[in-house]
């Protein structure tokens, strides 16, 4: 099994097979518009523009599961991303990314790459850890998605080769991306 076995819905409600991305390096990321990590959209767009012509894609999946930080409609999410961050990479349907109601793609991603902790060098790491421990302690159980902007790196064969928590920025992923692009 690989990510190519999954079909997801676009932000416009159309079915999209991830097999359409065969042969490309991917970042699959859960996003939110009202999060302390939302400025990562800017870095994601920079990374996308740098590598998109070299066989690279970013697939963004909005979710409202983390302190209701993505309350908008599909249209509002798309407008927010374009107006505030110039996002041109694909945004998919808002959906759950953790727990029993998580969309199958994210259940698969989690099964392929375990949670290894937050990068404690990030200025928001301690605050994030404290907020989760205080308000959402169950989020720290198992390998589930812990917060918005968890990024999964996928190679050209559809294998999930890396998991990067919100405390790792998209620009910190460029060395790994370049290695996979060859």
Automatic annotation (TrEMBL):
Q: Which residues form the active site?
A: 35
* InterPro entries with a match to the protein in the record: Glutathione_peroxidase, GPX_AS, GPX_CS, Thioredoxin-like_sf, Thioredoxin_domain
Q: Single Gene Ontology BP term?
A: cellular response to oxidative stress
> What are the entry keywords?
Oxidoreductase, Peroxidase
* Oxidoreductase among keywords: yes
Q: Which PROSITE patterns match?
A: GLUTATHIONE_PEROXID_1, GLUTATHIONE_PEROXID_2, GLUTATHIONE_PEROXID_3, THIOREDOXIN_2
Pfam family, any one? GSHPx
**Any signal peptide, and if so, which residues?**
none
Instruction: Name all Thioredoxin domain ranges.
Output: 1-182
Which is an annotated GO molecular function term of this record? peroxidase activity
Q: Which family does it belong to?
A: Belongs to the glutathione peroxidase family.
**Listed name of the protein:** Glutathione peroxidase
